[in-house]
């Protein structure tokens, strides 16, 4: 049995090896079929009679072929590079008139033929790709021109009374057709029997759906309020998820009710279309209501937009009205698609909804907020969330303009323009509100995971999440304002295509691979640094400065190696940038020579470690403690408690005094003077006693008193001691001075101060008297 199994595996493997070349040949694009499809597409574009839907179908088909051609362009890359390398290894072809060895000539010709054979499908794929790309561009241009013409076409004015009668008649016919359809279904005995058979199911669905619709929001509200408590991020996160029940439970109830109605079997095509859209309309209305409740909540800690209380209530009420109008427009659109109303009827029906929507957009835009104007001092001093209010102010101004301009254009006859302005504006406000609410939730979730307090929830991660949400919302925003799905797929295709640098095509997938590999390398580097810092290095005899230098060196080496490995494994060929990099390096070298100098000096500081974190040093006459040594600069905390950033080049090339390098022992000199006539031996004995009695003074080496000499006003002495911790020198000096004063007072020793005798040569000049001249002797 085992031999049989091994034989089967060997046979399958041999069959795969035999068929792999055939499969590889058949895996390429079928250019015969492509030629037929491309010709049909070009013919349809030349005739310009195909509908937009048909053009979209042709475009989707051509886009699939284009993706195949893009993949075929890189199918033989590895083999082509190998053959090209073999050809380059033979050297340059001989110049004219020179001979080459026959073996090399034959090998060169063989390799050139093989390279041409490999490049043939690549060139064919490039040509087909260019053709497909041109067809897609022409289809997009045709559809955009049609949409623009339809959008800007002047239609019938809804203010023209001659159109009102036709609109009323069309609406009456729609209602009458709906009633007649229901009557026809009800009059069918077969349908009534089927409805009776499904009655238990209908009643069950109706009961559950009715309970969820009537009580679901109340249940979710009560559950949400129970988790509303200040200072608890966990409760905020739970409250957010529970509050979603205000949408899900009623929408589920509406869905069950519609399924109960459809289960009766009396709904025809018209009513079926209506009931199928009811859950969608309910979800839209309840979703906007929930969003307005989150953005303009009564609790200021929950509200995303920090407006005044009365303004939040007003904005919430206006948002609910806009939700109803938005759903009403969806109902009108459904009727239009089913009954195919005339342009006159459509303009008359759309106009009241456009006017009401524009009016409430105008009212929503007038809801005031106290956001500071961008660029002012108040805006710069505002908190991190004020940008929401500034954005709300800009959106409010846009709502004012759209709320006026949309109805006016619709009244003139540009109904499509009015519809294309007011309803996308409502959807845009909802989308931005969703972005803000999700960003606030991510901030609470980040604070919960990180164990931070409530006021610390506005960190870097929520800001980055907000940027990511904004980027993700851009495609939705484009769809809201009229972009086609094919436009987004075209942008994505261009993004995947990448860009060309020399002979190398760099695609976003290459960048993604590089980023992922670099992030993995960076994380591994951080893990190694953490292990070295917390587990390995503390068990060695290396001082703290050396440990920090080793950890920093591992970080720099790891990041550099991660970048190098990521670029290499990612397949980015940056050789074509070597010339540009060489040309820029000269200019960059001159412009960044100070930065490079500081970088090299930082490496020297980390290796030689003349200073370490925690050292007391003096630089340029400023004393302080080293707090951090980075690659470019060193941060020193002065004794005045402010930070001084010193470039590393100054620490390496300048003079630096390190008072605590290696140990904290240090000498302290305390000068003192006594009056002339004092017994100097007794003074020396007293000073020695004071120095020896202090607990911070070392006895080996012993304290020493120096009789420096005779000053102008006193006999000068110095107490010279070695302290256990020179960082406490200021307190020791103060205490020794106190004891000197106390002991000198007890011993009656005078500490003199400077005195001067002033002699006036002509004192009478100060009194205003005229000096008398001496009498001449006869």
Which regions contain 5 or more consecutive residues with pLDDT less than 50? 1-26, 371-384
Instruction: Describe the largest sheet.
Output: 5 strands, antiparallel
What is the helical fraction, as a range of percent? 55-70%
What is the mean predicted local confidence, pLDDT? 80
For the secondary structure, the number of strands is: 10
Strand arrangement, major sheet: 6-5-4-3-7
Residue fraction in strands: 5-15%
**Assembly form of the protein:** single chain
Structural class by secondary-structure content: alpha+beta
Specify Rg, calculated over alpha carbons. Answer: 44 Å
**Count of DSSP H/I helices:** 25
The N- to C-terminal Cα distance equals: 162 Å
* Shape annotation: extended
Structure notes:
The protein has 778 residues and is an alpha+beta fold. It is 67% helix and 7% strand. It has 25 helices and ten strands. It has a five-stranded antiparallel β-sheet with strand order 6-5-4-3-7. A three-stranded antiparallel β-sheet has the order 8-10-9, with helices on one face. A two-stranded antiparallel ribbon has the order 1-2. Helix 10 (245-264) runs antiparallel to helix 11 (269-295). The protein is extended, with a radius of gyration of 44 Å.
